[in-house]
Amino acid sequence: MTAGTNKIKAIATTANGGPNLDRLDVEPPSGPPDTEAPSQPQNLRSTGKTSNSVTLEWDASTDNVGVSGYVLSGGQTATGTTATVGGLQPNTAYTFTVQARDAAGNLSPASAPVSVTTSPPSSGGRPADVNGQLHVCGVKLCNQYNKPIQLRGMSTHGIQWYSQCIKTASLDALVSDWGGDVLRVAMYIQEGGYETNPRKFTDMMHGYIEEATKRGIYVLVDWHQLTPGDPNANLARAKTFFTEIAQRHKDKTNIIYDIANEPNNVSWAKVKSYAEQMIPVIRAQDADSLIVSGTHGWSTFGISDGQDVTSVLNNKVNATNFMYSFHFYANSHKQEYINALSRVADEVPVFVTEFGTQTASGDGGNDFATSQKYIDLMAQKKISWTNWNFSDDNRSGAVFKGGTCAGNSFTGTGVLKPAGVWVRDRMRTPDDFPTS
Ligand SMILES: [Ca+2]
Ligand SMILES: [Ca+2]
Ligand SMILES: [Ca+2]
C-alpha cells in the first residue's frame, strides 16, 4: 500500500455460496513504515573504460531493512555494485554519482562524484600495423616511430600438448575480445617437443606465425628450453630451427625471437655465451630482428639462484636490438622480485615473456594484489608482457575452464577461470601506441 488512496477489491464466499462480506480489515505491515534511507555508497570508482563506455564500481550500502538496488546519476539502475554506462562520446569527461535505494523507495545521499574521461576514438589500427618493425631504443621497446610502447598478450601452453587451444576462434578472441597485441608460442624442445620431430614443430611454428600475422599482432617465437637448463645443450638444434624461421619470415615486421625460455642450473656466463652465438645466426638471415633471451635462475636475472641482478648487469650481452626476459609468478615471487624487475628495467631492455598470478608451478592460489603491483610497474616502465597461459589445462594459470578448447566459444568471461578474467581485464584497457 502506498500513501494516499488505495483501492481494495475483496471477494469472499460462504459455504452456501454467495457473497457474505460485511467487514474488511486491512492491517499495515507490522511496525512503523520504513522511512530510513540506505547509507551513502562509498568509494565510487571507474574500473574500466573504452572510447564509448565507462565501467563503475562502488562499495555496497547498508539499510535498516535492505538495499534493493542502486541508481546512477544518469538514471541507469543496477542491482549489484557495478554498472557499465554506454553510449558515451570518445575523449570526453563525464561525472558520475550513485545512490542506493530500499524497497520502500528511500534514496540514500548521492556518493562522492567520480570523473572519468573516455578513451580516444580507436585508431582502428591493428597493433602490428600501427607499430611496425620494433627495435630497442635505450632501455625501451620502440615502434617504427621511435616511440616507446608496451605490448600485452598471452603465451600458449606447450604446443606439443595444447595446440587444440590455438585455433581460429581462440586467436580471434585473443585479438578482438581481449585486445591482445602479441602471441607467444611456447615450443618446448624436450618433454615431447621439438627434439622428437623437428620438421613437425618447425612447421607448426611457421603456421602460428602466419596466423598471428593475418591478425595484425606480434608473434614471439619461444624456444622453450627448460630441462636441461643449460641452453647450450640445445645449441645445434637452436641454430637449425632459428635459421629456417628467420630465413622464411625475415621480411615480416611482427616477429620477435626468444632464444632461451628459462635457463636454470647454469651460470650467467654460459647463457651469455649462448646468446652471443645465437644472435649472429639469426641476424645473418634477419638483420633488423628483435631478439630476446632468458636469464639465469629461470629468467630472474639470477635472483632465484640466490644471486644479485648485477651478475647480469655487470656482464651484459654484447649485442644491439637485444632484450632480456624476466619471469615471475606473483604468489611465489614477491617484493624482492618486484624490486629486481624495477631495477633491471632501468638499466637494460626487459621483456616479461612469461608471468602468472599464481605460484611458480603455474598452479595454486592467485595473488592478484601482488600481480597488480607488477602490472602497475610494467605499465609505468612500458615493460611488455605475455601471460602464462592460453589453454584449458587443469591448473589455475590456464585461463580457460576445462573443456573450453574442444569448442569454439572463447569470448567473454564465462569460459574463463579467475586468472583469465583478471588478465583479460588488464589486457583490454586501451593501448598507447604513439605514432608521432
Ligand atoms: Ca530503509
Ligand atoms: Ca591491446
Ligand atoms: Ca626483418
UniProtKB/TrEMBL annotation:
- PROSITE patterns (alphabetical): FN3, GLYCOSYL_HYDROL_F5
Report the GO molecular function annotations.
Answer: cellulase activity
User: Domain named Fibronectin type-III: which ranges?
Assistant: 40-121
Recorded hits in InterPro entries, A to Z, give: FN3_dom (IPR003961), FN3_sf (IPR036116), GH (IPR017853), Glyco_hydro_5 (IPR001547), Glyco_hydro_5_CS (IPR018087), Ig-like_fold (IPR013783)
Q: Where is the composition biased (Polar residues)?
A: 37-60
Keywords associated with the record: Carbohydrate metabolism, Glycosidase, Hydrolase, Polysaccharide degradation
Report biased composition (Low complexity) as residue ranges.
108-123
Hydrolase as a keyword of this entry, yes or no, is yes
- Quote the catalytic activity from the record: Endohydrolysis of (1->4)-beta-D-glucosidic linkages in cellulose, lichenin and cereal beta-D-glucans
Q: Name one Pfam family in it.
A: Cellulase
Name its GO BP terms in alphabetical order: polysaccharide catabolic process
- Entry EC no(s): 3.2.1.4
Q: Where is this region: Disordered?
A: 1-60, 107-127
Q: Please, which domain of life does this record's source organism belong to?
A: Bacteria
**Record Gene3D superfamilies:** Glycosidases, Immunoglobulins
Q: Which family does it belong to?
A: Belongs to the glycosyl hydrolase 5 (cellulase A) family.
Sorted alphabetically, which PANTHER family does this protein's record hold?
A: ENDO-BETA-1,4-GLUCANASE A (PTHR34142), GLYCOSIDE HYDROLASE FAMILY 5 DOMAIN-CONTAINING PROTEIN (PTHR34142:SF1)
What this protein is called in its record is: cellulase
